[in-house]
């Protein structure tokens, strides 16, 4: 008790603070989401995500080399699909010569050790901007799973290391795992978006891929029939448990900053690597406030990333990966 207990003894300078520090942040913790567009020599900045670009494949390869040299070991790949390739089935998603498949091959050629995590969900390929196939006024679960399986196998054939299903259909992890085994890809892993919430923080991302849900009769312009309700925490445990039973290697909580309680809950309840996604809207908030001089960009960035580690995340998907890795090295 005071005065014998003085917490400030262990805070008196940086040396002692660093001795008692409970968490640390390194570039090994980061996964960088990247956006790939058709064309050559294309570098388009995403308006609501300053500093983040859609690159054509040629420039993506240079990017990935740079990222690797910064100490970042994994990329989460998204492609912007041309409007004329979109339909309700999402079939461009498993085109062996599609932009995603070409990107996976090109990255593997250029930086063989880079861990490639391609996004698996139909939204960039859907005329409706939904993560699944639409029929009978609904997002069809089991039909969508069949599409996601074809998509995942085509990613594995192209050389993906860890498939990243972000769609929130029920049973898709098991279906993908089984298909990977049957098709000769026992070593391809699955990072499942287990606790992915229906969030308004995804806005800028949907600008990046031009993939926002559109107005269709009887179907709301949101993803609340498949992504989780943000009022719920315990439900995340059921989602995580199901994905572990179905064969997930890593589970994800998404978004990040407003969901640190969920990260901790999952970490405390399961012995599986936990990832967290600091999403586009979180990135945009920090960028906008710092551009106005209202926040110190670098300090807020590192504080937010460290908070994920403190909450129990083993890895962080973040658009800040490059900037943070530069600062940390
Ligand atoms: C879609 C997908 C989304 C994100 C990753 N994959 C958006 C959504 O669910 O609508 C969001 C990423 C971000 O906001 O940074 N399957």
TrEMBL record:
Protein name: Delta-aminolevulinic acid dehydratase
EC number: 4.2.1.24
InterPro entries assigned: ALAD, ALAD_AS, Aldolase_TIM
Keyword terms, alphabetized: Heme biosynthesis, Lyase, Magnesium, Metal-binding, Porphyrin biosynthesis
The organism of origin for this protein: Moheibacter sediminis
Keyword Nucleotide-binding: no
Alphabetized SMART domains for the sequence: ALAD (SM01004)
Cited Pfam families: ALAD
Keyword Lipid metabolism recorded: no
GO molecular-function terms, A-Z: porphobilinogen synthase activity; zinc ion binding
Family: Belongs to the ALAD family.
Binding residue positions for Mg(2+): 239
Subunit relationships: Homooctamer.
Any one GO cellular component localisation term in the record: cytosol
Gene3D superfamilies: Aldolase class I
